[in-house]
Structure formats: C-alpha cells, structure tokens
C-alpha cells in the first residue's frame, strides 16, 4: 500500500522511517515534549523549510504513532509553532494513518514548516536556530546578525512570474522531477502546488520564478541571465585589440535542470589531459589538468547559489593556461564567507537548492566544498581560492603548468639547449608554447601539426602561429608543402 504525505508526496512512510535525517526532514519520538520542538521549528523556518515527523523513534526508527499520547499532547504538538515561536511561522499539520510497532491502527503527525522569507523566527525564550545539514544549530554573534540582515530582503525565486503559464514548462523535466521525489503517479498540478511552484493570488494561479528557472521549455523567453558562458584564453591573461587571444567563446542557455549536465559535457571536452613519460619505466602516464569533482562542483554551486535577480549577469567559466575561474553573480549568501565556506552552508535560492539536492547535485553537510579542497590536494595542485568582489564570487582552480614547464626544461637539459640552438639565449627568447613544440620535435625527431596540437594542448591557429615564428628564427624546418597531409617539422 502506498502511504505518503499529500502535502509533500516525496515523504512516503518508508522514507520517514528509514531515510537519514537531512536539511529538510527530522523525525521525533512521540515521547518528546512539545516545547522541545521549538528549536527545530525555528531552524527549518529560518532555512529552507522542512518537515518534522512525530511518532517515529529517532533512534530505533520504529513506528510508535501518536494516538497513545492523548488529545491534549497531540494538540500541544500541533500548536508548538504558535506557542513556542516568535513570530509564529507559517506551517501545516498533517496526519498519516499507519499500523504501529505493536500492530495497532495509529497515526503519525507531520508538521510542515514553511521557510520564512522576510523575518527571523525565534523560540519563545529568544533563541534563534538555523537548519544546517541534519542539525538545528543556534545562531549567535555575527552569524545571527547576518541572518537577521538577510531576512530583510525578498527572494527572487519566490516572486510570481507574471508571464509564464503551465504550458511553458517542459513536461520531460517535470516528469523527471516527479520521479525524483517519488510522485510519478501524482498529478503535475498537485505537485507544483504542493511544492510552492504554483500559487494562487487573488483568484488567479501564477508560476514562481523558481518554477520557470528550473523547468521552462525556453528559458531565454523569461530569463536572459540563466546561462553559463565559457571562455577559453590562449595565455595566462586576456588581451584586447590586435592581441585578442580568446580562442573559444560559448554560451549555454538552458533551464537549470539541463544547464549543469550540458555545461559539464561541453567543458569536459575543453579541458586538457597531459601526458608525461615516467623516469625508469619509460611509460607514458596521462593525468587530467584538473580532477573532475572540483570544477563540476564549482559550477553546481554557482548555479544553485547565484543571484538570479542580477540583471545582465551570468555565470562565467574562464579557462586560462594556468587556471580555471568560475565566476558567479552575487556575493556570498548570508552567513557564508570566503573563510568559512568549507564548513558553513546557507542557500540564497532555497527552493532551487532543494530541487538540485533532490537531483543529487548539491551535497548536504557541505561535503561538496570540502571535497573540492581534498581532491585538489590529492592531485598535488594548489589550494582552491574563493574571492568575493562587490558583485560576484569567483572560484579559482590552478593547475601545475609551471611545474610541467620546469620538468620539460630539466629533461631537455643545459646541453640540450646548446645542441638544439647553439646558443642558450635563443631558448630563453621562446615562450612556453614554442618551447613545448621544440621539445616535442626533439623527442620524436619530427612531428606533424596535429601531433603538436595534441602535445601542446593548443588550438590549430596557435600552433601555426608559433610554427611560423620558429621557422622565421631558423629553429625548425618544414618537410612537404602546405597542401601535403604528411607535412612534418624537424629541428633545423
């Protein structure tokens, strides 16, 4: 028998009994005092909202039910947000019929706490809590002040979209979402209403901005900012004018639930894999320029937490020779800073972040940011850098290009410079790409243009430009004419 919440269809009986507690869900024994629910009510209301399930043991996970508590205590549970929180948060109570642990008909009580958009919810003894991961943590000092400041503003994702209608949403994405939350057999209209994506205002139904950002069939019709722009730069700094060195410029315009996957696939094709010959074994070992998790998680976090109300701004991913930068519109959300980002979590876009969590993109307990740091360290790459500007947050992932250049220079050796050029000063005049081309030719005797592109990880235009310079300097010579597919280069 399918037993589930009608208000939140993803909360099945199996889920509330067996699933680990998380940012949106907590279970409590029927033995709890009603006053002790207050910190969790405050925490959910001040974060992204959530559900407290009463009548399921939070230790043994047995179905106790609440009927044995009596009407007075059950009413105390129901009235806990009203009696023990200031101001009272918006919430709904719901009973679900069950068979308890001793085989008797019973009920469990669900308190669905809605997020507070514009005010901080405190307990009656004037303490303030926030749901972080699976814990309800008290906010004190600067964290409390930042929370109070943040609650004074309206959230863009909560606003009603005056132009979009249900037919503008992508049914394929909606079906995927319903499957994720275990509501495949529930009417789409009911799911959108239950999750707050469809709201009634003055007798008329409106989609929220969150619904449009997540599910729109044509996102550019409603929000021009929902995109990722990828820029690949030939060098370590972007140049302008005659020295303009952008070799790839791609905009990915998709609703959020497609944006991450498409951007991940495209950017993965742009990143380089470096090949190095091991001393001793002589084997060639391939190593990615960056481990996958850090840059993918950086993009996911940018999509989840960016400021979507920032007009004319978009997520920008810039690839330089020595680093990858992911820049997101908006400053750090609320209590998060560059110093505490590895262990503090707070969502600017609570609804969007929740959906991305349900799609298993956004990690709980901040494990995602922690793993960015640990994976970069394991790859023996520099520590990630988070930089906050007046309007953006930038994540910088650095590669080991300087180490690779030093290794190649060492392999060529001092005598190698003299043998190749006759004069060491000529080697010092070459840039990194030219040195890489010379090293490849020296190691192989000769090389084609396509082989040099693969070795240097540079574009066709860049390699041709450097080959012409080396020809002009008399460092290399060419075998075959310009139309010869077997055309190669060797040292002069």
Tell me briefly what this model is.
The protein is an alpha+beta fold.
Task: Give an account of the 3D structure.
By secondary structure, the chain is an alpha+beta fold. The protein folds into four domains: 140 residues, Methyltransferase, Cobalt-precorrin-4 Transmethylase, Domain 2, CATH 3.30.950; 62 residues, no CATH class; 167 residues, Heat Shock Protein 90; 90 residues, Winged helix-like DNA-binding domain superfamily/Winged helix DNA-binding domain (Arc Repressor Mutant, subunit A, Orthogonal Bundle), CATH 1.10.10. It contains 17 helices and 21 strands. The strands form seven sheets. A six-stranded mixed sheet has the order 13-12-16-17-19-18, covered by helices on one side. A hairpin with an 8-residue loop joins β20 and β21. The chain is elongated. The N and C termini lie far apart (80 Å).
Structure summary, number of beta strands: 21
CATH class of the largest domain: Alpha Beta
Helix-and-strand structural type:
alpha+beta
Instruction: Tell me, briefly, the overall form.
Output: elongated
CATH architecture of the largest domain: 2-Layer Sandwich
Q: What is the mean pLDDT?
A: 86
The main pleated sheet reads as:
6 strands, mixed
Q: Determine the N-to-C terminus distance.
A: 80 Å
Count the domains.
4
Gyration radius (Cα, Å) is 29 Å
CATH topology of the largest domain: Heat Shock Protein 90
User: Would you identify the regions where 5 or more consecutive residues have pLDDT less than 50?
Assistant: 413-423
Strand order of the largest sheet: 13-12-16-17-19-18
Specify the number of helices.
17
Proportion of residues in β-strands: 15-25%
Helical content class: 25-40%
